[in-house]
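Consortium newsletter contribution from the modelling node. Members have asked for a concrete example of what our holo predictions look like. Here is one, prepared for the zinc ion complex that several groups have been discussing at recent meetings.
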Amino acid sequence: MKASVETNTPWEPNMDETTLELGTDRTSMLDTQIDALAANAVALLQRLVKTNSVNPLFPGIRRNDVVGGETACGQLLSNYLGAFGFVSETVAPDPQRANTVLRKAGAGGGRSLFINGHVDTVAPFRPSEWIEGNPWSGAIRDGNLYGLGATDMKSGLVAAALAAAAIEAAGLRLKGELQIHAVVGEETMSHELGTTAVLEAGFGGDAAIVVEPTSQPRPLSVTSVSAGNFNLQIDVKGYGTHSGNRGPSIRAGGEGNAAGVNAVEKAILVLQALQLLEQEWGINKSHPAFPAGIFSMAPGVFHGDAGVPSVGYLAEAATIGYLVWYPPNEKPEDIQAEIERHVHHAAQLDSWLRHNPPVLRWESHWPVFDTPVDHPLVHSLVTDRADVLGALPEGVPQVHSFNAVCDAAFIAKKAIPVATMGPGDLRHAHAVNEFVRLSEIRDCARILARTMVRWCGVA
Ligand SMILES: [Zn+2]
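And here is the predicted structure:
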């Protein structure tokens, strides 16, 4: 089932879809091992958080200050899972930024699965305000672990490693191959250095789980869809003359455009036109997994420039920078065409813009992912989440949207079914005193271990 606007399909998985039975003996065996291994896993997370792995391409960061941190994180995970028989390989289009692939061959006859998580982080926000004055403290207080990457998303990788270790410790041999991909570059959309590079190197599987933080709206929500976005820059040209030409350029009896054209004001016409389109989108564009009005065009940057360092001129040029969020059930090229058409028509209404059309620059595109809610992988995660955390009340959606973007989009681009589920709350990601609840790591490992066994089968 593909969710669509027309049918207004209820956002519930089809529970008739069957997946392998797990059995309570196996689940209690797995839980026992997870409890036994949990303290070590928390120590691993502390080491990961204490390892500065800020993305070297993050704005304002000097590469040499941070490069190598991502590789070191992959090495820590490799050391941990090496003790449980996992083989480690690296994929490194940038030799100083290695992706680490941890793999355990299956006995044969089962479906393969991989877990994806990024080891890079953003740069710390207001570093002096963090607990212990240190964004990389790894401090534990009241059951929470603090530090950059605690939520986004080193804890997800640790939960996956803990689940994989518990399966081994419980003596279960999976039929299908299990891989964990600890990738670089997610925070700057450098997927060609990270997730995409790993997949194109031949790693992957029949399905994937991205362990990004999904503890919204409730802990460890299962999410199977995210919106796409564009970074759109619109350049508007003016005719920058001395500000003394303001009157003749805009007042009756003056020379009009021949005296000067202020690009800032022309850009505002474009901005207003797109506000109207955005209002239409609020009504016309919807998807059952998303709240109303989420599909939008947010102007985040507005820049006008005379071309010389002075305010004594009418602006020669102006640029508006947008983040455009569009629904998963529309094609990105249709969204681009719709916006371009709208700007074109708005420009026809103005004597200057008609002959000096705004230039649209599509700077980057983060595609959607949209796995059917009744896909067996999603069903398995929903079932296993209910087993670990209790069933959700009647009528509450079982599957949600991921309200950010992540590498799941680039996995879906390779036609691999993918869902996201992981510890941590997006509201604490990229924020001062980022933290994760340690109990969520254990619960996430319990869910992941069940789904790994259910999906891959046991020999
Ligand atoms: Zn992330």
